[in-house]
């Protein structure tokens, strides 16, 4: 860079010091061409330096460093050449660049003038919006600093529960909320996101809000540019988006059919969460050696980075199991910039182009959380056990049921998915009999696709009295909700 500056000054000096020849002596054509090319070269150099110093707000006493110019060249590239919706691995590289530049802005801002800092912040924001165009304000598409406005919308220090919902899962959402509020006495505020009135009509929203204090509903279509999302045709695409757009800084994203055995606040007490700002849960270990095309697809995008220690420890990656994550509960701390940027990648994966690209490769959004974080090189934390069986114990020592249970770091039941019903896929009236659970067992192949899975060869635990009380209380509340809202619930 210093050499370019000296070159420009040298050419300008040579040109300014030139004296025209005597009019009696003819000017050669080659000299005319050399002069013309010199003028053009000086003009181009002056333009380039003018552009860069404009970006940086350079004053007579402020030096332009090579790092500054590289920063702007990088951001200009991200702005002018947006990524297609299927290059998951390469988008991870871009997120890493943005994260690096944000870190540079935060660490070097004291050495910049206010004008320099603001110029770089604006270019960074433009690069984020160019990469994730759904962040544009639908009513003000040209709004400046949209990404910063999103960050400013998070209430500092806030925590809450978020779910994305349509009317199909209304019943389970009512069960979840009544259990959390009435049985577990959680005071965490709850935000329910939906995509337009057709997704969750007003009569459903009013019933949900009536279930307790600090419950609100938000229409995602009023908050994002839907052109690249097409939320009306991609229900699971609303899940990470609901987490991203929530006003809560620390977010527990839940599926409607999740059931808590401990107050949800306990999730924030996890040591792994405190360290990484993330808390993810494993699926069952099934189909070892199967779905090779899925693993090849994962690897085609993961190849851009060396694998993290967490990735190397995942059963799907290191042992060839078919799935990794149960996304029924996901916990993120959005105050951590790398986590927030990783969440942007996850939302982008689940936009319209990404959903179509993933179709047939993975199931819904469930693998996109760890996958997006790994692609962006953001550290993440998984529970120590894989998904566990929960239900009655049979005479052969197996635990069979529809639920997949998850334990906390002290091996106590924390939550399970599959709703309070015995088998929501076959009978929407009979509630479950949850007496035992197993840790680190072997999952048997499913028989007939009826939603029931069995686990053996693990350590069996009886559901303790406190857990029994929570389950019985939750089932009782669910039955009351079924009766109260029977005009909207089909049982």
Task: Please tell me about this protein's structure.
It is a single chain. The chain has 491 residues and is α+β, with helices and mostly antiparallel strands. Helices cover 42% and strands 15% of the residues. The chain has 17 helices and 17 strands. The strands form four sheets. A six-stranded mixed sheet has the order 3-2-1-4-7-6. A six-stranded antiparallel sheet has the order 5-11-10-8-14-17. The longest helix has 28 residues, at 29-56. The relative contact order is 0.10.
Lateral arrangement of strands in the main beta sheet: 3-2-1-4-7-6
For the secondary structure, the number of strands is: 17
Outline the low-pLDDT stretches.
Answer: 1-25, 40-64
The separation of the N and C termini measures 72 Å
How large a portion of the residues is in β-strands, by DSSP E? Answer: 15-25%
Biggest beta sheet attributes: 6 strands, mixed
Global geometry: globular
Number of helices: 17
Please give the structural blueprint.
Blueprint: H1 2-16, H2 29-56, H3 66-80, H4 88-108, H5 114-131, H6 146-153, E1 155-164, H7 170-183, E2 190-194, H8 202-209, E3 215-219, H9 238-245, E4 248-254, E5 259-260, H10 271-276, E6 278-279, H11 292-302, H12 309-312, H13 315-318, E7 329-333, H14 337-349, H15 352-358, H16 368-375, E8 388-391, E9 399-401, E10 403-407, E11 413-417, E12 421-423, E13 427-431, E14 436-439, E15 442-443, E16 453-456, E17 459-462, H17 465-484
Parallel strand pairs: 1-2, 1-4, 2-3
Antiparallel strand pairs: 4-7, 5-11, 6-7, 8-10, 8-14, 9-16, 10-11, 12-13, 14-17, 15-16
Helix pairs in contact: 1-2, 3-4, 3-5, 4-5, 4-14, 4-16, 7-17, 9-14, 14-16
């Amino acid at each position: 860079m210093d050499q370019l500056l000296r070159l420009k000054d040298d050419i300008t000096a040579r040109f300014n010091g030139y004296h025209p020849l005597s009019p009696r002596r003819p000017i050669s054509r080659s000299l005319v061409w050399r002069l013309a090319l010199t003028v053009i070269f000086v003009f181009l150099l002056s333009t380039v330096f003018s552009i860069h110093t404009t970006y940086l707000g350079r004053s007579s006493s402020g030096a332009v460093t090579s790092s500054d110019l590289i920063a702007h060249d990088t951001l200009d590239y991200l702005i002018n050449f947006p990524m297609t919706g299927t290059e998951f691995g390469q988008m991870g590289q871009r997120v890493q660049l943005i994260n690096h530049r944000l870190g540079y802005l935060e660490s070097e801002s004291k050495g910049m003038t206010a004008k320099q800092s603001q110029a770089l912040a604006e270019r960074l924001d433009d690069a984020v919006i160019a990469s994730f165009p759904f962040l544009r304000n639908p009513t003000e598409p040209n709004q400046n600093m949209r990404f910063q406005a999103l960050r400013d919308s998070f209430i500092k220090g806030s925590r809450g529960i978020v779910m994305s919902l349509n009317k199909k899962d209304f019943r389970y959402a009512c069960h979840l909320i009544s259990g959390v509020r009435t049985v577990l006495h959680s005071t965490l505020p709850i935000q329910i996101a939906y995509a337009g009135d057709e997704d969750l009509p007003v009569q459903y929203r009013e019933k949900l809000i009536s279930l307790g204090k600090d419950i609100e509903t938000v229409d995602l279509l009023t908050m994002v540019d839907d052109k690249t999302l097409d939320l009306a045709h991609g229900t699971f695409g609303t899940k990470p988006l609901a987490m991203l757009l929530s006003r809560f800084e620390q977010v527990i994203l839940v599926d409607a059919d999740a059931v808590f055995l401990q107050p949800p606040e306990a999730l924030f007490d996890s040591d792994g969460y405190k360290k990484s700002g993330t808390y993810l849960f494993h699926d069952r270990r099934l189909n070892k050696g199967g779905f090779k095309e899925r693993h090849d697809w994962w690897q085609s995008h993961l190849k851009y980075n060396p694998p993290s220690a967490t990735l190397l420890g995942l059963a799907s990656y290191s042992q060839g199991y078919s799935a990794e994550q149960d996304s029924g509960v996901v916990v993120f701390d959005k105050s951590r910039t790398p986590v927030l940027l990783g969440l942007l990648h996850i939302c982008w994966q689940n936009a319209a182009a990404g959903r179509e690209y993933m179709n047939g490769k993975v199931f819904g959004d469930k693998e996109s959380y760890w996958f997006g974080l790994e692609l962006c090189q953001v550290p993440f934390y998984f529970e120590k056990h894989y998904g566990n069986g929960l239900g009655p114990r049979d005479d052969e020592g197996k635990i069979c049921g529809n639920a997949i249970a998850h334990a906390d770091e002290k091996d106590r039941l924390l939550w399970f998915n599959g709703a309070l019903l015995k088998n929501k896929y076959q009978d929407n009236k009979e509630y479950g009999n949850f007496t035992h659970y197993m840790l680190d067992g072997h999952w048997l192949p499913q028989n007939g696709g009826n939603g029931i899975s069995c686990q053996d060869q693990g350590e069996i635990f009886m559901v303790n009295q406190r857990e029994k009380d929570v389950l019985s209380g939750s089932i009782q509340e669910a039955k009351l909700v079924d009766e109260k809202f029977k005009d909207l619930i089909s049982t």
